[in-house]
UniProtKB/TrEMBL annotation:
It is an enzyme of class 2 (transferase). This is Acetyltransferase. It comes from Halomonas eurihalina. Transmembrane segments: none annotated. Residues 20-51 form a coiled coil. Keywords: Acyltransferase, Coiled coil, Repeat, Transferase. Its EC number is 2.3.1.-. GO terms for molecular function: galactoside O-acetyltransferase activity. PROSITE patterns: HEXAPEP_TRANSFERASES.
């Protein structure tokens, strides 16, 4: 099993692996180009985003600056919006549904490190997938931790630290993030 296969399977892996270093370097160069592009260079930005995040659905909008580890481990539905200064550490798969809004400074962390010092000292790390359901809104500065899922139509309050799964149709906030109340999602009028 390659180090990348271990990484994507949520097993301990060596991030110093040549293939992983090359993939990260590719993502750094693409994010640098994206973040350095001008606002009036829409076609170039769209090209860079397609190359950086090949698993993105149509109508992706990313405000620069944007940062990620790999980009190719991010799956996006239709109509996804990342506001300024978002970070996606995609050492494990990050799946985001349709019609999702991410406020400024939202951070999605799949990366994690061993708790015991000896293993951590070895340089190995791991990751756990993150999933965000359709029609979610993650408020500015929210942090989604490794292995967390946010259910469809839920809203995460600004500045929240999400350490465990959030069900569908709720407003959740705080540190640690907890359900505050149910949201009654009415059918949208056409």
């Amino acid at each position: 099993m390659t180090e990348r296969e271990k990484m994507l399977a949520s097993e301990l892996y060596d991030p110093r692996d040549a293939e992983l270093q090359a993939l990260r370097r590719r993502a750094r160069l693409l994010t640098r180009a994206l973040n350095d592009s001008r606002d009036d260079e829409e076609d170039e930005r769209a090209r860079l985003l397609r190359e950086l995040i090949p698993n993105a659905g149509p109508h992706l909008w990313v405000e620069a600056p944007f940062y990620c580890d790999y980009g190719c481990h991010i799956w996006l539905g239709e109509n996804v919006f990342f506001n300024f200064n978002c970070v996606v550490l995609d050492v494990a798969p990050v799946t985001i549904g349709d019609n999702v809004l991410l406020g400024p400074g939202v951070q999605l962390y799949t990366a994690t490190h061993p708790l015991d010092a000896k293993t951590r000292r070895s340089g190995q790390e791991a990751g756990r997938p993150i999933a965000i359901g359709d029609d979610c809104w993650l408020g500015g500065g929210a942090i989604i931790n490794p292995g967390v899922s946010v259910g469809p139509r839920s809203v995460i309050g600004a500045g929240s630290v999400v350490t465990s799964d959030i069900p569908a149709d709720v407003f959740a906030a705080g540190n640690p993030c907890r359900v505050i109340r149910k949201i009654e999602n009415r059918a949208m009028e056409e």
